[in-house]
Amino acid sequence: MSDSRDRLSKEPGDEPPSGGGLKDRVPPEAIRAVPVRHWGRWIGVAVVFALLAALFQAFRGADINWDVVGEFLTYDTIVEGAGKTLWITVLSMLLGVVLGVVLAIMRLSRNPVLAGVAWGYIWFFRGTPVLVQLFLWYNLSFVFETVNLGFYKDEMNDFMTPFLAALLGLGLNEAAYMAEIARAGIQSVDHGQTEAAHALGMNNGKTLRRIVLPQAMRVIVPPTGNEFINMLKTSSLVYAIQYTELFRAGNTISSRNLAVMEMLIVVTVWYLILTTVFSIGQYYLERYFARGNERSRPPTPFQRARARARLLGSRGEGAGSGSVGGV
Q1: CATH for 68-291?
Q2: Residue spans with biased composition (Basic and acidic residues) (predicted)?
Q3: In the chain, where the domains are located
Q4: Half-sphere exposure of 236 (CA within 13 A, CB side)
Q5: pTM, whole model, 2 decimals?
Q6: Cα–Cα distance between 69 and 75 in angstroms, integer?
């Protein structure tokens, strides 16, 4: 009985192989990994390089006086125009952000009058072009000859300067878009946060300042940075109402020296410099407000470059040691 149990408990694979044992076994063949070839990527790279070479060749043979570009890149009028562009952009964004947050709160209010006024404001300013709004403010003297604020009275032509018309046209238009961005950020915060704050005795204003808005900034900051960069470029429209910003400064100089394309290149370089600087600032601002949502902050471009350099260095050292060992 015990012999039959022993035979049943043995598996077929437990028996040693016949005909010589383990010495006769053939070792398994080494795995040879074949990398996947991405032919589409190489074709795309070749097409991009061909287009870049064609573009370089076209500009190389173009009738452009690059000496004029270098000369006027730091010209006083151009630098002053760039400063005015930056100034009107910052002030318009401040006006747009502050008024946009107010409109977002009004839009979320339970009061139908406040919500209706905010909706009507957003509907009007988002539904009309910025250039039309600039001309409406600049030509307001056709409708109102004087401005009377009680404590201040003046002719509308003297009051509505190109700078003020540009500020109102850009800032009030931006407020409509910022209102929707702020509203989306506020609504992204879980309603339980508000209920918990009210349970602790906070009123609505304190809850909004201390609890809701700090958490909503993670959603509000990225599109706000994009709006700032877009405002930086949209400010070129104010040249039409005689405000001497960067584009108008370049256009004025080109009308005198007839270097139209050269001055357009100068203006383009300045816009690229400004947008690049603020894009870097936007990245670090987003990284700062993302610190409470992620376990670790995302690496900066410098940290990524340093990590890649270390990786390449370690690979080089590994290859060198391997070759020495092989010798």
Answers
A1: 1.10.3720.10
A2: 1-13
A3: 68-291
A4: 14
A5: 0.74
A6: 10
